[in-house]
């Protein structure tokens, strides 16, 4: 079995996905056992299992075929180390968060890295509102202004590319986009005053 595993590792390292899948399949019971063992450090079993699989994949691609340790020994060590390292860092992180939130029975500020700015519900709501208003105003523009603005600002076309696509002068495209932006500003200001 050891020689067969070494051949599978060699094939996987050369890009054979089926060989990698066979190796993972051979260690699947062990990976599940280890994930259950470390599950308490994760939000759910799937996260722990994902870390175990990550350790297995790392072992496959970093295994040195000239070393004396067997594939099984290296796999066990790699999976164990990944889960141990990840659970330790999660424990430290949650202790830091807990300490920051509650100190001396008083609520303190949350750590800055707890929620990314993009995940803030209020920010997401406001960005969605702005996006909705912008698309509404864009729909109110004449067809060519709307088309050229979409091509330039949303799809990243240059004025030259748009001009070539529509057989127009670059200055004509520039004029349509400037008028469209001016009209957008007027529509958005009017909508803001109406709200």
Automatic annotation (TrEMBL):
Q: Which residues form the RNA polymerase sigma-70 region domain?
A: 137-185
One GO process term, biological-process aspect: DNA-templated transcription initiation
The GO terms describing molecular function are:
DNA binding; sigma factor activity
Please indicate if the UniProt record lists Transcription as a keyword.
Answer: yes
> Start and end of every Helix-turn-helix conjugative transposon-like domain?
9-49
UniProt entry keywords in alphabetical sequence? DNA-binding, Sigma factor, Transcription, Transcription regulation
* Keyword DNA-binding belongs to the record: yes
* InterPro entries linked to this entry: HTH_dom_conjug_TS-like, RNA_pol_sigma-70_dom, RNA_pol_sigma70_r4, RNA_pol_sigma_r2, RNA_pol_sigma_r3/r4-like, WH-like_DNA-bd_sf
Q: Which Pfam families match?
A: HTH_16, Sigma70_r4
State the PANTHER family in the record.
SIGMA FACTOR F FLAGELLAR
Name the UniProt record assigns to this protein: Sigma-70 family RNA polymerase sigma factor
> What broad taxonomic lineage does this protein's source fall under?
Bacteria, Bacillati, Bacillota, Negativicutes, Veillonellales
């Amino acid at each position: 079995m050891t020689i067969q595993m070494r051949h599978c590792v060699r094939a996987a390292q050369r890009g054979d996905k089926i060989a990698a899948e066979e190796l993972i399949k051979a260690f699947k019971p062990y990976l599940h056992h280890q994930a259950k063992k470390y599950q308490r450090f994760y939000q759910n079993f799937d996260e722990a299992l994902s870390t175990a699989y990550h350790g297995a994949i790392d072992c496959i691609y970093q295994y040195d075929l000239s070393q004396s340790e067997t594939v099984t020994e290296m796999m066990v060590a790699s999976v164990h180390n990944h889960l141990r390292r990840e659970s330790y860092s999660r424990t430290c992180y949650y202790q830091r968060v807990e300490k920051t939130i509650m100190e001396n029975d008083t609520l303190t500020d949350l750590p800055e890295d707890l929620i990314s700015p993009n995940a803030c519900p209020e920010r997401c709501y406001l960005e969605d509102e702005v996006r909705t208003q912008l698309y509404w105003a864009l729909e109110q523009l004449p067809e060519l202004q709307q088309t050229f603005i979409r091509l330039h600002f949303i799809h990243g076309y240059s004025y030259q590319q748009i001009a070539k696509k529509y057989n127009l002068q670059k200055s004509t495209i520039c004029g349509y986009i400037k008028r469209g932006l001016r009209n957008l500003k007027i529509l958005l200001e009017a909508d803001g005053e109406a709200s």
